[in-house]
From TrEMBL:
Residues 7-238 form the ABC transporter domain. Signal peptide: none annotated. One of its GO terms (cellular component) is ATP-binding cassette (ABC) transporter complex. This is ABC transporter ATP-binding protein. GO terms for biological process: quaternary ammonium group transport. Pfam families: ABC_tran, TOBE_2. Keywords: ATP-binding, Nucleotide-binding, Transport. Gene3D superfamilies: P-loop containing nucleotide triphosphate hydrolases. GO terms for molecular function: ATP binding; ATP hydrolysis activity; transmembrane transporter activity. It comes from the Bacteria. It comes from Paragemmobacter straminiformis. The keyword Transport applies. InterPro entries: AAA+_ATPase, ABC_SmlMolc_Importer, ABC_transporter-like_ATP-bd, ABC_transporter-like_CS, Mo/tungstate-bd_C_term_dom, P-loop_NTPase, Transp-assoc_OB_typ2.
Length: 325
């Protein structure tokens, strides 16, 4: 239902007591049914933005609309949003099923109905077999599934997730990533997922919103943001790019679009790193510009280079993206 449950931030500002501006005049439309990642370095205002959407933090200026209705003044439970916290915040003395059913108990839903609904939610996250356990008897990944079920039982239109994968080991993180994506598709609701990891955002997001210093730096599809960063900050933060100062201005170019060639910019190799499918070769060119080239490993080892070697670097002009800042 396009437009049905769009979430819109309209000139939203958050100023904490003491004067720090955590979110500065941010406007953005989060489309219904999309997986959006809010991406940016620590301290850029991601959690503040999420907490304002959830209603856990007051908005200093601006408003938040869900389905066109201003929800800025509503308490969290009445907004149509639900938040999954980084720490999961499960009640230690309640069973898994009781944790999941908790918010329905608060709403006065009778026991049979809320336990039935909790059962459905546990099935959704594949935790039916562990319904009677206490949180302390679960692994980190299992606790996270319970936290998800608990957030989803309120039937939110928008699920808010603040660094949901950061406590997991790398293997589990990738598995849970796929789970989150599957859940979002199955439920058809919007997920707004805060992360400081660009690989996580690329893997999950229909749309990436890059934040920097309390503002939105760039928003777009994962491919657009990665392939065509508009600012030096985005190019550097997404990684895998070079920022080149050329006579015509500043440009970004993907590191895998830079190759060793017979003709091209002169440079001296400064480091060589084997990365599996690619070799990351860094070379210093005129003006002390360090340029990173990701070279397919077979190609590299056909004519390997070492630090100190003189090389020439080339790229297609069409791969350069002009930076606006
Ligand atoms: P992120 O989630 O991107 O790391 P936050 O939204 O947590 O960023 O923080 C943004 C800025 O607001 C930071 O400078 C942080 O120190 C400040 N901040 C966050 N919460 C509070 C608070 N409760 N009181 C005062 N300053 C805060
Ligand atoms: Mg945060």
């Amino acid at each position: 239902m396009r437009g049905g449950h769009d979430l819109e931030l309209v000139h939203v500002t958050k100023r904490y007591a003491g004067g720090a501006v955590a979110v500065a005049d941010v406007s953005h439309l989060f489309r219904a049914g999309s997986y959006v990642c809010l991406l940016g370095p620590s301290g850029c205002g991601k959690s503040s933005t999420l907490r304002m959407i959830a209603g856990h933090e007051a908005i200093t200026e601006g408003s938040i609309l869900l389905s066109g209705k201003d929800v800025s003044a509503l308490p969290p439970a009445q907004r149509g949003t639900a938040m999954m916290f980084q720490s999961y915040a499960l009640f230690p003395h309640l069973s898994v099923a009781e944790n999941v059913a908790f918010s329905l108990k608060m709403k006065g839903v009778d026991k049979a109905a809320r336990m039935r609904r909790a059962g459905e939610m546990l099935e959704l996250v594949d935790m039916t077999a562990l319904a009677a356990r206490l949180p302390a008897q679960l692994s980190g990944g299992q606790q996270q599934r319970v936290a998800l079920a608990r957030a989803l039982i309120t039937d939110p239109q928008v699920l808010l997730l603040d660094e949901p994968l950061s406590a997991l080991d790398p293997f589990l993180r990738i598995r849970m990533r796929a789970e989150l994506k599957r859940l979002q598709r199955e439920l058809g609701i919007s997920f707004i997922h805060v992360t400081h990891g660009q690989d996580e955002a690329l893997a999950l997001a229909d749309e990436i919103v890059v934040m920097n210093s309390a503002r939105i730096e760039q928003a777009g599809s994962a491919r657009d943001v990665f392939n065509a960063p508009q600012t030096e900050f985005v190019a550097r933060f997404m990684g895998g790019h070079n920022v080149l100062a050329l006579p015509q201005g500043r440009f970004a170019i993907r590191a895998d679009a830079v190759r060793l060639a017979a003709q091209g910019a002169e440079a001296v190799v400064t480091s060589v790193e084997f990365q599996g499918a690619h070799v990351a070769l860094t070379a210093r060119a005129a003006g002390d510009q360090d340029i990173l080239a990701l070279i397919p490993e077979e190609q590299f080892f056909a004519d390997p280079k070492s630090p100190g070697d003189a090389v020439r670097l080339a790229w297609d002009e069409g791969r350069l993206h002009r930076l606006s800042a």
